[in-house]
């Protein structure tokens, strides 16, 4: 879990983590952010004991597509959890607000409509 002081991070010590299968969907847009978030997620999952072979990566063009991909992964019931990683940067149009709202609602729907937890990891700037 993230804290204000990131050095306070304590590993979760997840029991039987080696048995979990995790789906990670990340956006290609703003890859200077999303690739770092993806790589950090992989590092933490592996440190917690998830086998690298049990982590499946999927990419989508942009943050808007995260909701669809995450829902498909959740509905497939092949994963114990799904992580959606993206980045939306504010410009001078309302596009930022539309995308942010749609992605947040879409990941929320994954959690409400399926039995698979979907983790919202979208950076907004």
TrEMBL record:
CDD domains in alphabetical order: Lumazine_synthase-I
Gene3D superfamilies named among the record's database cross-references: Lumazine/riboflavin synthase
Pathway: Cofactor biosynthesis; riboflavin biosynthesis; riboflavin from 2-hydroxy-3-oxobutyl phosphate and 5-amino-6-(D-ribitylamino)uracil: step 1/2
Gene Ontology CC: cytosol; riboflavin synthase complex
Keywords attached to this entry: Riboflavin biosynthesis, Transferase
Pfam (any one): DMRL_synthase
Molecular function GO labels: 6,7-dimethyl-8-ribityllumazine synthase activity
Superkingdom, taxonomy of origin: Bacteria
Catalytic activity: (2S)-2-hydroxy-3-oxobutyl phosphate + 5-amino-6-(D-ribitylamino)uracil = 6,7-dimethyl-8-(1-D-ribityl)lumazine + phosphate + 2 H2O + H(+)
Biological processes annotated in GO: riboflavin biosynthetic process
EC number: 2.5.1.78
Keyword Transcription regulation found: no
Family: Belongs to the DMRL synthase family.
Alphabetized NCBIfam families for the sequence: lumazine-synth
The name this protein goes by in its record: 6,7-dimethyl-8-ribityllumazine synthase
Gene that specifies this protein: ribH
């Amino acid at each position: 879990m993230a804290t204000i002081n990131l050095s306070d991070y304590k590993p979760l010590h997840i029991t039987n983590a080696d048995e979990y299968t995790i789906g990670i969907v990340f956006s290609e847009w703003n890859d200077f952010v999303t690739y770092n978030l993806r790589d950090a997620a992989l590092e933490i999952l592996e440190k917690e004991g998830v086998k690298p072979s049990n982590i499946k990566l999927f990419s989508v063009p942009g943050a808007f597509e995260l909701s669809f991909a995450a829902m498909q992964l959740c509905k497939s019931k092949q994963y114990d959890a799904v992580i959606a990683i993206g980045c939306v940067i504010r410009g001078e149009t309302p596009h930022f607000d539309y995308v942010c709202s749609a992605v947040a609602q879409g990941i929320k729907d994954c959690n409400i409509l399926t039995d698979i937890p979907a983790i919202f990891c979208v950076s907004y700037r």
